[in-house]
Every structure is written in structure tokens, then in C-alpha cells.
Amino acid sequence: QVQLVESGGGLVQAGGSLRLSCAASGIIFRRSAMAWYRQAPGKQREYVTAITSAGITNYADSVKGRFTISRDNAKNTVYLQMNSLKPEDTAVYYCNSEYGSMVSWGQGTQVTVSS
Known about the structure:
Elements: E1 3-7, E2 10-13, E3 18-25, E4 33-39, E5 46-51, E6 57-59, E7 67-72, E8 77-82, E9 91-99, E10 102-105, E11 109-114
Parallel strand pairs: 2-11
Antiparallel strand pairs: 1-3, 3-8, 4-5, 4-9, 5-6, 7-8, 9-10, 9-11
């Protein structure tokens, strides 16, 4: 059974930083592509960033230069370092894994950025 557990969300002032973690189990983590998505109130879930099994990263334009995704295959964990946070980054952040046709989601962690 696949399980993705996010942590690290919270309340931060604009300009601050947070580091999210997503611990995975039940998947072949080192062969899985991992990603972060977010969903703000009243909006659709949107892509934030992804990292392939080879460590290649990609970012949405809205977070490029501020957010960094990384992975630790020894710990089956993917991270999202978020710097220079803005109020518009406020959302529930979801971890996502993809391995072949198997796609899984975490339960989400709330990030709130105050102005």
C-alpha cells in the first residue's frame, strides 16, 4: 500500500521560508518521479515542481528561483524548500509520486503566508 506523508507546513510571514517533507512508503522510491502540487481556496490544484528518478528538476514559472525540490533516496523522502514566500503561495501542498501507471497522492499540508 502506497503512503505519502507530508509535513512541515505552517504559518509564515511574507519573505520567510519553509521546508516541506514527504515521506514515502510502499513504492520503489528511487525509481519514482516525485512532485509537489498545491491547491489554494477556491482554485484548482496546480503543479509546482517535480524531480525525476534521475534527479532532473522542473518548476512552475511562479516558483522558479524561490523553491527547490530535492530527494533523498536513502530516506525515501522528497523535500520542498520554499524561500521568499508570498501570500499567493498560501495553499494546501500535496506530494505526488508516479511509477509507471501508478500515481499516488499524499493528504496535503497547509502553508499559510501572511502579508
